[in-house]
Design a protein that fits this description.
Radius of gyration of chain A: 20 Å
Shape of chain A: elongated
Helix content of chain A: over 70%
Oligomer: heterodimer
Number of strands of chain A: 0
Order of helices and strands of chain B: EEEHEEHHHEHEHEEHEEEHEH
Structural class of chain B: alpha/beta
Strand content of chain A: under 5%
Strand order of the largest sheet of chain B: 5-6-7-3-8-9
Number of helices of chain B: 9
Order of helices and strands of chain A: HHHHHHHHHHH
Structural class of chain A: mainly alpha
Number of strands of chain B: 13
Distance between the termini of chain A: 31 Å
Distance between the termini of chain B: 36 Å
Number of helices of chain A: 11
Helix content of chain B: 25-40%
Largest interface: A-B, 23 and 29 residues
């Protein structure tokens, strides 16, 4: 419990900044929705002039774009990108920071097992992610209600927002497992930005491609097709399972590797 | 039961040497010195003992249990690393409280006491402390839960002589209260003052484990002889002599063995001057080192 509280205390500041950034992003995009709706036909014509591949890459669906859900799903990919970076940063740094800040000699000779340390830290990271999502959900819902021009399905809106949580959980777990492989990770940003943007670009390329269902397994950004969610009010089970599997495998591997890891002296 | 038990402990770092077949026991209530030059394997041994590093083979236990399988045995352990680093953005008192929270007892009284002895400002941010002051935080942090086993890895680096003295007094007090102390250093003087037994480590291997009293027993003597005529080096070609240096009619050496035999030998020489001294630990230490080469 003491480790958990210590972690929460040291993480909260950055968490607040990330949450604010994501809410601001949502507010910024949603604020242009009313003006877009008022010129819906012009806007559709404009987007219709884009090549279909570009539209696919940006997640634009002409049939839905003028509804608030459709519009939200288009901008949501940016919020998701932002959330993925937050989660990956958190995952990569949460265990590796003890070595980087050279405090491992302090924490790891305390009378607690490595597994307990991993659990406490994972729990702290999860708390931060959940808190971010709760605040973001409430805020985005409020903003959507302010800018809406017609009623929309609140349940669908929540389902779209929940994909942020899922994607964040995946990147958190991937970040943690990536970090335990390094003997000493000098800085977090290159690896987290690299992986997140790499997978994002890959996801965009997959979206453009032949809609190969197998290729979508490669990038977590493609696990949740928002158009599908809006149409069917459901997630695609196979990708949901895949996401859960990635999380489970990463977490288990992190425990095993971290328990076996040699903690070397600072030099 | 030994407080520390290290048996045939081996650690390889890939192809690089770590430690090889290190064995030693530290008994209840003793102050045990662990001596060797930098890079000899002192820290590797200690880190394996603490459970920070997994051994390639062999056993290292404290209170009869391995720290890796039974992390809870570290409840009675206090550790001071050679270089201390703590969470920079915390205040000293918060760090110490965080440290205390792992030991399930109220340490606030002891924290104040130790901070006073070490002259440490508890309200400062760790970030703002000098190296020496960080070291003091380390000392308080290692002792605040009144551990039964204290492991010190090069503890005095960065402390000024006055603080070193206070620190040694503190350790002696803890020892008197019953704490066992394991103390690594490359400075022999500090070990000589405190330890009851000492192990020498060199290139990953224990080369000697001896009682401090045995080390300083009369059997070791440092001879300095000056004769009237030139000394024949072969005259001293007998067992027990090391570090023999002959220059013209002056000879220096360390002798370990029956003093009478040596005196008879010297009686046959025409002496101009002689001094026989107690060698300090450093010389005995060097004696082991050169012998191994």
């Amino acid at each position: 419990m003491n480790i958990y509280l210590h972690e929460i205390r040291s993480l909260r500041k950055t968490a607040v900044i990330w949450t604010c950034a994501m809410v601001a992003l949502a507010a910024m995009f949603l604020s242009i929705y009313p003006s877009m709706v008022s010129e819906a036909d012009e806007f559709k014509k404009l987007l219709g002039a884009y090549p279909p591949t570009v539209r696919a890459m940006l997640g634009i669906n002409l049939d839905y774009i003028t509804s608030i859900l459709g519009f939200y799903s288009m901008i949501f990919s940016f919020i998701m990108l932002c959330g993925a970076v937050q989660a990956m940063n958190l995952g990569v740094s949460i265990l590796s920071k003890e070595s980087r800040e050279r405090t491992a000699d302090f924490l790891l000779v305390k009378p607690v097992s490595r597994s307990k340390i991993v659990s406490a830290k994972l729990l702290a990271a999860l708390t931060i992610i959940f808190a971010t999502n709760v605040i973001f959900n409430v805020a985005s819902f409020l903003i959507a209600n302010i800018v809406k021009t017609a009623d929309y399905d609140g349940k669908l809106f929540l389902m779209v927002n929940l994909t942020l949580l899922f994607v964040q959980l995946i990147f958190l777990a991937v970040g943690v497992v990536a970090s335990v492989f390094f003997r000493k990770l000098k800085s977090v940003l290159p690896i987290s930005l690299g992986v997140v943007f790499g997978l994002y670009m890959l996801g965009a390329l997959i979206a453009v491609g032949e809609n190969d269902d197998w290729a979508r397994f490669i990038s977590p950004f493609r696990y949740f097709d928002i158009t599908y969610i809006i149409k069917n009010a459901a997630y695609e089970t196979q990708y949901l399972v895949m996401g859960a599997a990635v999380v489970a495998v990463s977490v288990v591997a992190s425990y095993i590797i971290y328990n076996r890891k040699d903690i070397h002296a600072v030099s | 039961m030994s407080i520390i038990e290290i048996n045939k402990l081996t650690k390889h770092y890939g192809r690089a040497r770590g430690i090889e077949n290190v064995s030693l026991n530290v008994e209840q209530g003793e102050i045990f010195g662990f001596i060797g030059p930098n890079g000899a394997g002192k820290s590797t041994t200690i880190r394996t003992l603490l459970g920070l590093i997994r051994p390639t083979s062999g056993i290292a236990t404290i209170f009869g249990k391995s720290c890796i399988e039974h992390p809870e045995v570290r409840m009675e352990l206090g550790y001071l690393p050679s270089e201390v680093f703590y969470y920079d953005n915390m205040r000293v008192i918060d760090l110490l409280k965080y440290s205390a929270s792992f030991y399930k007892k109220d340490c606030s009284g002891r924290i104040k006491e130790l901070a006073e002895i070490m002259d440490l400002d508890l309200k400062k941010k760790i970030d703002d402390l000098s190296f020496g002051n960080k070291k003091k935080v380390g000392i308080v942090q290692g002792l605040l839960h009144e551990p039964r086993l204290i492991i010190l890895d090069e503890p005095t680096s960065g402390l000024d002589p006055l603080m070193q003295q206070k620190f040694f007094d503190l350790i002696a007090q803890e020892n008197q209260k019953g704490a066992t102390v394991f103390f690594s250093s490359h400075i022999l003087g500090e070990v000589q003052k405190m330890c009851s037994r000492v192990a020498f480590i060199k290139e990953g291997k224990i080369i000697k484990l001896e009682k401090m009293s045995t080390l300083q027993e009369n059997s070791y003597k440092k001879f300095n002889i000056e004769t009237k005529s030139a000394i024949d080096k072969s005259a001293f070609d007998i067992g027990g002599i090391s570090k023999l240096e002959v220059k013209g009619n002056v000879a220096n050496f360390i002798f370990k063995g029956n003093i009478n035999a040596m005196m008879k030998k010297i009686a046959g020489l025409e002496l101009r001057n002689i001094s026989i001294e107690e060698p300090d630990l450093e010389e005995i230490f060097m004696h082991y080192y050169t012998k191994e080469d």
